[in-house]
Write a structure and sequence with these properties.
The protein is an alpha+beta fold. 44% of the residues lie in helices and 23% in strands. It has 6 helices and 9 strands; from the N terminus they run E-E-H-H-E-H-E-E-H-E-E-H-H-E-E. The strands form 3 sheets. A 5-stranded mixed sheet has the order 4-6-7-9-8, covered by helices on one side. It has a two-stranded antiparallel ribbon with strand order 1-2. A hairpin with a 2-residue loop joins strand 6 (170-178) and strand 7. The protein is globular and about 85 Å long. Bound molecules: adenosine-5'-diphosphate. Adenosine-5'-diphosphate binds at residues 156, 160-161, 164, 188, 190-193, 201, 206-209, 213, 218-224, 247. Its main location: membrane. GO terms for molecular function: ATP binding; phosphoprotein phosphatase activity; phosphorelay sensor kinase activity.
């Protein structure tokens, strides 16, 4: 992108001197373009379920004398309303964490607890597809952060693993110490992500396959939330994936106290 400059001229002192300021506006323009795109995307994402809802309401009016049809359309209205709710919830979560503000209530977080809480919240969806959720290596590890946000991030990763995997497969959540960090990985045996898309999946509203994402109830914001949660914690999220065999998402988070395990009293570590 070409660099663009804005020039400002300001009077200075009483002898007719002027101050000429050349500002680099490239970054400001980029930020504005990103914001405009985001607002356009949000509007589009909101319009879709609202449009479906009003169409369904009309259809129900026409089908008033067919109770079976009324029940069916009412069910679809509930589904669309739920989608709207998820979208608004995700937008609120995202706006809370992407502003670069400090995380709300930082403290030591046992990895075992957040992993099991996230798994519990995804169990119903997994069971519906006979997908087994397993955890390993989480005992004794602690990270530094906000437990609610970390559960939200893990839940998004596990939800995706379930959504983009066939029935009767396994999703494994594992943790391991890595120097002054802890790595928590979510691995699935799902459809995988084409290499060309792997960099973009963390962008808001980017989807490899929009129809599939909507069909599984996705808002297109899950991975953007995961990314912002990890960055807000001073960590990062990475992906490894192979089309047709599966994906592994890894959250790298700072260990509480600078070391993944509690330092034993006999340790000579400085
Ligand atoms: P969505 O609500 O669409 O799932 P996300 O931000 O969570 O939005 O993910 C963005 C896109 O990345 C998804 O639409 C999907 O194409 C892809 N994706 C995310 N997780 C996985 C996964 N575990 N396996 C395959 N594709 C995935």
């Amino acid at each position: 992108e070409a660099t663009s400059f804005g020039v400002r001229v300001a009077p200075l002192g009483s002898h007719g001197q002027v101050l000429v300021l050349a500002e680099d506006q490239t970054e400001r323009r980029r930020v504005e373009a990103v914001r405009r795109d985001f607002v356009a995307n949000v509007s589009h994402e909101l319009k879709t379920p609202v449009g479906a809802l009003s169409l369904l309401a009309e259809t129900i009016q026409d089908a008033a004398d067919d109770p079976e049809a009324v029940t069916r359309f009412a069910g679809r209205m509930q589904h669309e309303a739920a989608r709207l709710t998820y979208l608004v919830q995700d937008l609120i979560t995202l706006s809370r964490i992407q502003g670069g503000e400090p995380i709300p209530t930082p403290g030591p977080v046992p990895v075992d607890e957040i992993v099991h809480e996230a798994i519990d919240r995804c169990n119903t969806r997994a069971a519906a597809k006979d997908i087994t959720l397993v955890a390993g290596g989480t005992e004794g590890l602690r990270v530094w952060g906000d437990d609610d946000l970390l559960v939200t991030a893990l839940r998004n990763l596990i939800d995706n693993a379930v959504a983009y995997s066939p029935e009767h497969t396994r999703v494994v959540v594992s943790a391991r110490p890595a120097g002054d960090s802890v790595e928590i990985s979510v691995s699935d045996q799902g459809i995988g992500i084409p290499e060309s898309a792997q960099e973009r999946i963390f962008e808001r509203f980017f989807r490899v396959d929009a129809a599939r994402s909507r069909a599984t109830g996705g808002t297109g914001l899950g991975l953007a939330i995961v990314k912002h949660v990890s960055v807000a914690h001073g960590g990062e999220v990475t992906v490894w994936s192979k089309e047709g065999s599966g994906s592994t998402f890894t959250l790298k988070l700072p260990a509480f106290g600078g070391t993944a395990y509690a330092v034993p009293s006999t340790s000579t570590t400085p």
